[in-house]
Task: structure prediction
Amino acid sequence: MTSANILPSFDPRHIPVVGVDVHLPKVQAHVLQPLALAQRFRQPPIWTPELKGEPRFSDRVPVHASVLVPLVMRDHGLAVLLTERTTHLSSHSGQIAFPGGKADPEDASTTDTALREAEEEIGLDRHFVEVLGNLPTYITGSAFIVTPVVALVRADYAMTLNPHEVADAFEVPLDFLMTPANHRRHAMEWAGSRREWFSMPYTDDRAERFIWGATAGMLRNFYRFLIA
Result:
């Protein structure tokens, strides 16, 4: 990685909000039910992902990765299980992320990568998980070609966080994330070009969870898939 391509250190919370998508419809509650989601993945609509990736800021050779998009089946509705990465990691340190990581040669598929990584990062055992399907790949600025694997997770799941990789884990209501009025657009000028991204800040009873960048981008594509 060359120093000329490294993004400057900045707090994304302080980058101006240039728009909020209050004009777009939210995903209706009946679409966010487990059976409806399973049916949609079995018979997907014709749709186009809004975001395919980010401008590159790394000279590394692209690598394949998978993340698990875990939808926890709570009585009050589905919730997305997210992690906060530890601050010492070399990639996306301190950010809000899905459980996931690089593919290993031993992995049988993109799904196997996502499930293995979820076990390694947060101790999520596979027998709690029902995979629904994949969303289109998303290429991060750090040169990861990421396959999001969407899955239902039983509410009685247990977790054991890997302290080297995960500082915290928490849930965000899927309804909140599938409401565009909660999607903020940010923009900044860097290295002679304009960079834009989404954020979806969510405050729970412990902290503000600033969801942005690749995680927000994949969630935005999930929104487009469900609203199509």
Summary: Helices lie at 34-42, 110-122, 174-177, 213-227. The longest helix spans residues 213-227. Confidence is low (pLDDT under 50) at residues 1-7, 89-93.
